[in-house]
């Protein structure tokens, strides 16, 4: 997990079992103005959300991860338990089927660029909750 002294910056949780993609997504979201928490699987992500859900504004998750639950499961659980958290799901191997994504969530194919991530975050997160760097 990376912690920063950005004070009132909104938090994002990035979940991916691929360390390089985790670092890339973290870097993109930090550049967009978020303080970023990281997890490598659904169990870690839920533990972090249990502790930090009040501060987290955005969940950015991969689909395929080790364990019994995948990113679609995490997206739905997050939406049910903490509906204020915006959800972006990314995958290079799976496209969402009906019912996979909670209402309001968006999906990004991998590989993704910083532009694509920023676009989806803007679209998914209400304007008043955008970090300063994302406001246009």
Provide structural commentary.
α2 packs parallel to α3. By secondary structure, the chain is α/β, with parallel strands linked by helices. The chain is built from four helices and five strands; from the N terminus they run βαβαβαββα. Strands 2-1-3-4-5 form a five-stranded parallel beta sheet, with helices on both faces. It starts with 10 loop residues before the first strand and ends in a 12-residue tail after the last helix.
Overall strand count: 5
| Strand proportion | 15-25%
* Poorly predicted runs of 5 or more residues: 1-5
Radius of gyration: 13 Å
| Structural class estimated from helices and strands | alpha/beta
Throw out a few tags for this protein.
136 residues; five-stranded parallel β-sheet; 4 helices; 5 strands; 20% strand; globular
SSE blueprint:
Layout: E1 11-15, H1 19-31, E2 35-39, H2 42-52, E3 56-62, H3 71-81, E4 86-91, E5 106-109, H4 114-124
Helix pairs in contact: 2-3
